[in-house]
Automatic annotation (TrEMBL):
It comes from the Bacteria. This is Minor curlin subunit. Residues 1-20, 26-50 are annotated as: Disordered. The lineage of its organism: Bacteria, Pseudomonadati, Pseudomonadota, Alphaproteobacteria, Hyphomicrobiales.
């Protein structure tokens, strides 16, 4: 969580996950801009694969977020 205890000027976060079950959350508060990117790649038995992502952003500038999820 970026800037949640006190607002930052700008926040950028990147999360990359590879596993059977992936879960990611980003939270950003900024006076400027927020950028968040989450990439998840799940593998293994199809019944067990799971990707979960959430993004929360608050700013006076520009918020951008990208979530990419793949299951095999």
């Amino acid at each position: 969580m970026q800037g949640t205890s006190s607002p930052s000027l700008n926040n950028v976060s990147t999360v990359n996950q590879a596993g059977v079950q992936n879960s990611a959350t980003t939270g950003q508060v900024a006076f400027g801009n927020n950028g968040s990117a989450i990439t998840q790649n799940s593998f293994g038995p199809p019944a067990l694969q799971n990707n979960s992502a959430s993004v929360g952003q608050l700013s006076f500038g520009i918020n951008t977020s990208t979530v990419s999820q793949t299951a095999h």
